[in-house]
Amino acid sequence: MPRIVRGAEVSWEGNVARGTGGITAASSGAFVGLEYTAATRIGVRAGKTSPEELLAAAHGGCFTMSLASELSKAGTPPGRLDVRCVVTMDEVADKGHQIVHSEIEAHGTVPGCDEASFAQAAEAADATCPFSALIRASATVTVSATLS
Amino acid sequence: MATERTMTTTWHGTLLEGAGTIHEAPSGAFGPLDVSWPSRAEAPDGRTSPEELIAAAHSACFSMALSAGLARGGTPAERLDTTATVTFVPGEGITKVALAVRGSVPGLDAEAFLAAAEGAKTGCPVSKALAGVPEITLDAALA
User: Fold this and answer.
1) Reported confidence tier of residue A14, pLDDT bands at 50, 70, 90
2) What are the extents of the domains in chain A?
3) Gap from A125 CA to chain B (nearest CA, Å)
4) Predicted ipTM?
C-alpha cells in the first residue's frame, strides 16, 4: 500500500496568554492562516478554530469514510451519511489538559440496510477508522448510529 | 472546565466513488471543505483530508504548549514556526507524525529550546491523544 503523507504549518507569535497562531493546510491549501488563541480555545470561540475543532473534523471525516467503506463491503452502499463528532478536552487531576472524549453520531440513508446492519457497520467503521484507534490513547470513543 | 468542539461531515455514495463535505466549522473559522478518497490517498488536488486535519491540530496544539512552557521558564517566545507531517498507510494506520519547529526566543540557548520542545511534544493534549502513533519525531532548533 502507498504511504500517504499530509502536512500542516503553524506560526505562533507571542506568549500563550496573549499570543496568536495561524494554521495552514500545507499539503492541499484547503485552508490558510486560520487564527487560534488560548482564550478562544478554552472559552468562547469568537470565530476562531482550535485543535479540538480540527480533531473533531479529522475524526468525523475519517469515521465517515470508514463507514462508507464498511457499508459498500456489505453490499449496501450509502445514499447519504451525516456524521457529527464532538471532541471534549478537560483538565484531568495530575495529568493536565487531555482530550477525554470523542462522540460520534451517525445518521444514514442506506437503501437495503436495516437498523441492526447499520449499527454493525458503524461498529466495524469504528474498529477500522485509523483515528478511532489512536485517539483512544487518552479519550473514550462512543458511537451511535441510526437510519434517517 | 470541559471544552467541547463539534464538527459534522456529510457523505454520498461508496468510499471509492463517492464524495463528502466537512461542514462549515461552528466557530465559523473554516469550511465547508470537500473530501474524497482519491484526494485523501493520492494527489490532494486542493482538498483536505483527515490526516491533514490531524497535522493541523497537532502543530497548533504543540505550538501553544511550547509557547506556554517557554513563558513558564522565563524566556517567552517571540515567534514559533511549526510543521507537522502525518503519514498514513491504508490497512496499517497512522504510522508517523514528524514535528519540526523553529523558534525565535530571546535569551535562550539551543539546548534549552530543545528541552522545552521535548516537553511540549510529550505534554500537549493532542500528543497525549496520539500517544499510540508508532513514531513521533521532533526536530527543534532556534531560528
Assistant:
1) confident
2) 8-42, 51-147
3) 12
4) 0.96
